[in-house]
TrEMBL record:
Compartmental location: Cell membrane
GO MF annotations, alphabetized: phosphoprotein phosphatase activity; phosphorelay sensor kinase activity
GO cellular component: plasma membrane
Entry keywords, A to Z: Cell membrane, Kinase, Membrane, Transferase, Transmembrane, Transmembrane helix, Two-component regulatory system
Organism encoding this protein: Blautia hydrogenotrophica (strain DSM 10507 / JCM 14656 / S5a33)
Protein's name in the database: histidine kinase
InterPro entries, per database record: BphY/WalK/GraS-like, HATPase_C_sf, HATPase_dom, His_kinase_dom, HisK_dim/P_sf, Sig_transdc_His_kin-like_C
Any Gene Ontology biological process: cellular response to phosphate starvation
């Protein structure tokens, strides 16, 4: 709080005092007091008023600085009413009580929203598990009656399963810690398993895949497998018409291991590249394809943040895309 703002807030009080000082000066002059006496009385009045205003300013500034300090150090700022310091001023106590009532209403509303979200998330998880049963049955039926028709059904069934998995992982993305298992993961085996799961896609899109992942990392295998699967689906979606290829490889760097997925597809312009991880962003290519949701890479980044994995991308239009996952290794583990 600045002194200028404080004095501006007290402008009516100052005008009142100045008016009283002029009235008193006129009265004293009319009753025979000398000008020197009147001037001395006004000087004393002005000095007392100035000291009082300065004391009030220091007290209010200290109070609001304490409030700002509380606000900066608390995570849930809507609890300010419960943390406000005590004050002898009546208006401060009234404001505190009003803020408490307002915050109580906000807390109750947040609790209702969280309960609603929890119920919706549980419903989505239950629905996903229920719908996976018929999807698995379709796979078994197609495997037992192999022909061109069932092959196409398997491909479409895999697409449905990918979308179902995306819904499940999106529902769980805010509570990764509940299904989180860190262990040493063989990236070569994980990449090969992910490619094998989408082999029909690669055959259908006439894409070649090269895997060279010689390193192991400590992470959650299931979540990283989902992220890698989304990146590969993105590469297939924006492939070139002829000679489409994808390279999956790892390399060590100063602070850990990099897992890179590179393709020679359509790529993306430099202007749109910073936005590819935004929710719902489809870009020029996505609007041209008319089948992009803008959720795949957004979900990948969200999960990477939860897992402590860095993700970034590099691309040029018509020159392909490179997406990198960086798995950091602590200084303690690096010495083992």
């Amino acid at each position: 709080m600045k002194l200028r703002d404080f004095l501006r807030d007290k402008i009516f009080l100052l005008l009142f005092h100045f008016g009283c000082m002029l009235g008193l000066a006129a009265f004293l002059c009319l009753t025979g007091y000398s000008v020197d006496c009147v001037f001395l009385i006004l000087i004393v009045w002005l000095a007392v008023l100035s000291f009082w205003l300065l004391g009030q300013y220091r007290q209010r500034r200290g109070y609001f600085r304490r409030l700002e300090g509380i606000l900066e150090n608390v995570d849930q700022r809507f609890l300010l009413g419960e943390l406000m310091p005590d004050s002898f001023r009546l208006e401060d106590r009234l404001y505190r009580e009003l803020i408490r009532k307002s915050n109580q209403s906000v807390i109750e509303q947040l609790r209702r929203i969280e309960d609603g979200q929890k119920e919706y998330r549980e419903y989505i998880e239950s629905w996903v598990h229920e719908v996976k049963a018929p999807l698995t049955s379709i796979v078994l039926l197609c495997e037992n009656h192999k022909d061109e028709c069932t092959r196409m059904i398997l491909q479409e069934n895999q697409k449905v399963e990918n979308f179902v998995n995306m819904a499940l992982y999106y529902a769980r993305s805010d509570e990764v810690y509940k299904d989180y298992l860190i262990k040493e993961t063989d990236l070569q085996a994980l990449a090969e398993e992910t490619v094998a799961r989408n082999r029909q896609y690669f055959i259908q899109n006439q894409m070649q895949v090269e895997v060279d992942c010689r390193h192991r990392v400590f992470t959650d295998e299931k979540w990283i497998g989902f992220i890698l699967n989304q990146i590969l689906l993105n590469s297939m979606k924006y492939k070139r018409d002829e000679g489409a290829r994808v390279w999956i490889f790892t390399e060590k760097y100063e602070h850990g291991v990099r897992l890179t997925v590179r393709d020679n597809g359509m790529g993306i312009s430099v202007q749109e590249l910073p936005r590819i991880f935004e929710k719902g962003f489809t870009g020029t290519n996505g609007r041209r394809q008319e089948r992009s949701t803008g959720m795949g890479l957004y979900l990948c980044r969200k999960l990477c943040l939860k897992l402590g994995v860095q993700i970034w991308a590099d691309s040029r239009l018509f020159e392909g895309m490179r997406i990198v996952l960086e798995f950091p290794v602590s200084s303690y583990l690096s010495k083992l």
